[in-house]
């Protein structure tokens, strides 16, 4: 099926595509003309910000959890006090410079990533009674568990 931007129903951290478990196989973007120097400056600034905050030298499972700071406080402090900063299973690791990311330090696989995720969820639930909310949508079967 083809959907327009409006039909996709984009909102902060979501869309109809995510809500309905649709898989995007192709996208077309309409670009606007602009000042090439301004565009280059914006691209450079954005790239510099990403290199400071995101694991640009590692493969990544993305920014994994959505965290409600106003409701639960600082996530980093909770991770740090429970030895979750840099927590690792195989080659999947909580990225110490930005704990929202789970990175691949070598040839990690989905099972290792999901073991890291599961450990984080269990620790945060048992210590703080907080249910972690995934930003990443997991689809498929990993280690005998179906995700949809």
Give an account of the 3D structure:
- By secondary structure, the protein is α+β, with helices and mostly antiparallel strands.
- It has two domains: 1-30, no CATH class; 57-148, Uridine Diphospho-n-acetylenolpyruvylglucosamine Reductase, domain 1 (Alpha-Beta Complex).
- The protein is 38% helix and 16% strand.
- It has helices at residues 5-8, 16-19, 36-53, 69-72, 75-81, 110-128, and strands at 59-63, 65-66, 88-89, 92-94, 101-104, 133-134, 140-142, 145-147.
- A four-stranded antiparallel β-sheet has the order 1-5-4-3. The chain has a two-stranded antiparallel sheet with strand order 2-6. A two-stranded antiparallel ribbon has the order 7-8.
- The chain starts with a helix and ends with a strand.
- The mean pLDDT is 90.
Task: Outline the fold blueprint.
Blueprint: H1 5-8, H2 16-19, H3 36-53, E1 59-63, E2 65-66, H4 69-72, H5 75-81, E3 88-89, E4 92-94, E5 101-104, H6 110-128, E6 133-134, E7 140-142, E8 145-147
Antiparallel strand pairs: 1-5, 2-6, 3-4, 4-5, 7-8
Report how far apart the termini are. 20 Å
The domain count comes to: 2
CATH topology of the largest domain: Uridine Diphospho-n-acetylenolpyruvylglucosamine Reductase, domain 1
Radius of gyration: 18 Å
Give the overall pLDDT as a whole number.
90
The helix/strand class is alpha+beta
Q: Which regions contain 5 or more consecutive residues with pLDDT less than 50?
A: none
Helix segment tally: 6
User: What is the helix fraction of residues, given as a range?
Assistant: 25-40%
How is the main sheet built?
A: 4 strands, antiparallel
Report the CATH architecture of the largest domain: Alpha-Beta Complex
How much of the residues is beta strand, in percent?
15-25%
Tally of strands: 8
Q: What characteristic shape results from the CA principal axes?
A: globular
CATH homologous superfamily heading of the largest domain: UDP-N-acetylenolpyruvoylglucosamine reductase, C-terminal domain
């Amino acid at each position: 099926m083809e959907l327009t931007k409006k039909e996709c129903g984009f909102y902060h951290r979501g869309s109809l595509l995510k809500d309905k478990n649709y898989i995007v196989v192709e996208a077309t973007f309409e670009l606007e003309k602009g000042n090439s120097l301004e565009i280059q400056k914006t691209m450079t600034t954005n790239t510099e910000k990403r290199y400071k905050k995101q694991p640009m030298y590692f493969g990544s499972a993305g920014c994994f959890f959505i965290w409600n700071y106003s409701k639960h406080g600082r996530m980093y402090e909770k991770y740090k006090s429970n030895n979750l900063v840099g927590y690792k299973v195989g080659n999947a690791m909580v990225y110490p410079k930005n704990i929202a990311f789970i990175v691949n330090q070598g040839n990690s696989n989905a099972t290792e990533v999901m073991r890291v995720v599961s450990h984080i969820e269990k620790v945060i639930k048992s210590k703080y009674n907080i249910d972690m909310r995934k930003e990443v949508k997991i689809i498929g079967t990993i280690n005998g568990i179906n995700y949809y």
